[in-house]
User: Fold this.
Amino acid sequence: MPDGSCCNRLSLSDLLRREHGAVPLPSRLRRLARRSAPIVSAKLVLPDPSANTPPRSLGELTRCCFAVGGVAFVDDRVPFAMVDGNYIMEEFKEAKAAGTYAVNMDRIPMLSVDGKPVLGQSKSIERYVAGVCGLMGSSALEAAQIDMVGEHVRDIKDAFNKAKGANTLEAFLAEELGPKFLKPLDKVVGMLGQPGFAVGSKLSLAGLQIWQLATDFLAGNAAEAEKAMAGCDALKAVVAAVAANEKLQAWLAARPVTIF
Ligand SMILES: N[C@@H](CCC(=O)N[C@@H](CS)C(=O)NCC(=O)O)C(=O)O
Assistant:
């Protein structure tokens, strides 16, 4: 499955602990954080227990933000099974019928706060959670620049997926990915961030998005991606700095193994 696949309800209802971050938590969540103990739960039916590919669902970058920000969260995954190549998601079907995901037009991922489903759209969730976790820069302008870099990354993924759909991926990787996308993005990051940072001088959602693009999204085309990245020193420094983050590394080691 391509990046952009299913399937999580991320819950902030048990937002318990916050160690870093420029954006203060609402006082109600701060009270919750003081009185609760960390809970992280994952319900997942693995269709193929031997599958060993990294999770790349629409909720994964949000989980990475929580991890890097030191904010405990409930990792509540919709169970599914695969039968004859089809995804069977009975619990999801029932929850949809009950209106659980209505605010997100009956789709997931969904963020719940205080037990209430309040936010859908993976990118909106990412930006909100990144703010809570102190990953949206040091000013309103930096927040907007982080948002912009995220949209640049989205454009690159869209172009990749379009080429894949049109069976022109090979040409895209060889002729367009570097000159048309990665090199211009390298320039952006060189202009906006200190060495090792996508924007400003702090780890941000934009850095995580660049890291995810380089290490996960393009993982199936690693050799071509490496060629396309030649000379993109600012991007490479961001990827290396994010990959060196110890909290992120701990999450990567602890996260459940899933097929996407
Ligand atoms: N643009 C949305 C896409 C959400 C989406 O398409 N979710 C899929 C699962 S990956 C879904 O819930 N589809 C409805 C269904 O399967 O009935 C986002 O980024 O969150």
About this structure: The CA atoms of residues 65 and 130 lie 6 Å apart.
